[in-house]
Amino acid sequence: MRIVGARLEHADSHTLERFLATGGNNALRKALLEMTPEAVAAEVLTANLLGRGGAGFEAGRKWGMLRKAKRRYLVVNGDESEPATFKDHLLVERDPHQLVEGATIAAYAIGASLAVIYLRGEFALGLERVQEAINDAYRIGALGRDIFGSGFSVDIVLQPGAGAYICGEETALLESLEGNRGFPRIKPPYFPAVIGLYGDPTIVNNVETVSNLPWIVENGGEAFKSLGSGRSTGTRLFALSGQVNRPGVYEVEMTKITFRDLIFGEEFGQGLAPSRSLTAFIPGGASSPWFFPEHLDLPLGQDEVAKAGSMLGSGSVIVMDDSSCPVRSAWRIARFFARESCGQCTPCREGGTWIDRIMERIERGNGREEDLDLLLDLCDNISPGVVWPPAQTTICVLGPSIPPAISAAISRFRDDFLLHIKEGRCPHA
Ligand SMILES: Cc1cc2nc3c(=O)[nH]c(=O)nc-3n(C[C@H](O)[C@H](O)[C@H](O)COP(=O)(O)O)c2cc1C
Ligand code: SF4
Questions:
Q1: Are residues 48 and 164 in the same domain?
Q2: What CATH number corresponds to the domain at position 38?
Q3: pTM of the prediction?
Q4: In CA terms, which of 173, 239, 302, 404 is 20 to 30 Å from 289?
């Protein structure tokens, strides 16, 4: 079952010709010419489309929280800078017109007069193609004034990011759009739907979330909801990476396959290298708690994964086999977050840096046994109790993204840590 990836079987999926030949803009015409904005929003609510950017909040419910105001904005989040997350990358490069169509539908449904697509600055080809898709849409009357004679007008602006991971956090992104340093804003009380870009109500939605909208409008919210099960409806893109034979981005119906299918299945990851065994995998991006072989039979569903103590997050699954060093892997993740901390909150800024340094000394063979307790204490200071979902002492959840990898590695691979300390070197090197 393909929704957002339906066009990707064509080598020229990014062109206007292929887009129009495969039903492109049919949904936009239907929405603008046959439906009211409220009717479009109602279909999205029925679909129970969960946001695909990480938090998994229902798009329809978020739209319903938008404050009434003269000016409203839509911001499409394509910052995608978390290590091993690369599914939006595929969509912006391979089906940019679908994204523009989805953004225009969303703008119509929420009454936005301006939409911004904020793309990771390193996506050079993606930026080129999305800009071309925007230009094409203006040229054929699918964007701008009085779209398709419907009386609805909206502009879309493409904004490249400047390379800070924190600017993917929605309020930091808004700061960045306003020309400020990418500092997350304190929320609650004011979420972007109440006070967003330039102080006006703003909806921030992920690239994949928005790319689902044309299908939902064309086929109806009920059809989307009939795919998957429970709260996990429709399909999702999973970016599979790490020590797996066939890494890549796979679109699957939610809850219908398990992690075992994704990692070992013939049409997906095709397993590990010969004579290697799986030691751990990360189910939802670098910030999510690790899973182990006993979790392989869990279905790819939001609630199923949450109940087992982790999250589907940004849809990236990272596989580790017995040749990889768990200390190094956890250190690598902690270092990323420590370096990307914006520095506003002491636990994240200082705690992340300490953890990075301690993990480095253990990995390099200079660790001490008491470092393990020190690491856990630091984790507890950033995110009290080191539980999932995380408790927070910080403005945003970048801080609490640091402890999961450290606590998982220590609790599951304690002997490995001790071996590093005892032997004064990495036993995997
Ligand atoms: C540190 C951090 C980085 C984030 N990076 C992204 C990102 O690159 N793309 C994204 O869509 N959401 C990202 N998010 C989540 C956004 O804040 C927001 O929840 C999301 O864009 C909302 O879209 P959705 O409801 O469609 O998922 C990030 C959150 C945090 C805390
Ligand atoms: S948690 Fe870290 S990244 Fe988030 S606002 Fe605080 S210092 Fe900045």
A1: yes
A2: 3.40.50.11540
A3: 0.97
A4: 173
